[in-house]
Amino acid sequence: MAATSRFWWDLSTTEFGALDTERTVAILPVGAIEQHGPHLPVKVDAAINAGILSRALELMPPHSAALVLPPLPYGKSDEHLAFPGTLTLSHETLGRVWYEIAESVHRAGVRKILFFNSHGGQPQLLDIICRDLRVKLGMLAVNTTWWQLIDISDLFAADEIRLGIHGGQIETSAMLHLAPDDVRMDRAETFISAAAAIEQEFALLGPEAAARFGWQAQDLHPAGVCGDARAASAELGRAVVERAAPRLVALVDDISRYPLSRIVAGHRSQ
């Protein structure tokens, strides 16, 4: 049976025993609390995550087996340590927290989990944890970052999508739609990323190129921001959210329908 609520913490302990363990998908929202320049609050990643998820829940059909876990709004943000307000966990701690939350989900009888991410600094760690959950617990563990779900090439210039990776037009637009009172457009600038010059000088090397190096936000811009924040608008932000939310709904449906029988037990050679 479907849960009586979409939220994990609303269920009583006895109600977990009545869940459809083949279909139920636990969703763990994972984000970050980190600097986003002079014009945006440190809650940007967490706020965008919550906004997309909230809209997705409005769009979910009654039969959906989604069950949203309490969010984990902070993550691995050590690339932003040079700026006050950033909260971060080490990758060792964060990976362990994610794993142990999923382990608790598994203990409740739920075998499918989606890590819904909104911070670009942690997909690699999510891949590792999802593999560990498959290997050690036999779970269907999935992760996605919201911008991987949608095409926004008709909304934003190609250079902005490629280089405006932090606090630029895209994230500022989303915040103008979701939390306009928290945006200081009088402080917004065109924050030109050093990556633009790097890609002209080097064929393969860059912060987000084919060959990547470890970087901190101040390496790309003194304000820790990349992108044309001045060009942001609430209309663009609404378009982003309205595209991402139904795609999240579709992903949850895919995961719900994915047969657990496809998680095949391994055979050790003698």
From TrEMBL:
Its cofactor is Zn(2+). It holds the Pfam family Creatininase. InterPro entries: Creatininase-like_sf (IPR024087), Creatininase/forma_Hydrolase (IPR003785). Keywords: Hydrolase, Metal-binding, Zinc. Belongs to the creatininase superfamily. PANTHER family: 2-AMINO-5-FORMYLAMINO-6-RIBOSYLAMINOPYRIMIDIN-4(3H)-ONE 5'-MONOPHOSPHATE DEFORMYLASE, 3-DEHYDRO-SCYLLO-INOSOSE HYDROLASE. This is Creatininase family protein. The lineage of its organism: Bacteria, Pseudomonadati, Pseudomonadota, Alphaproteobacteria, Hyphomicrobiales.
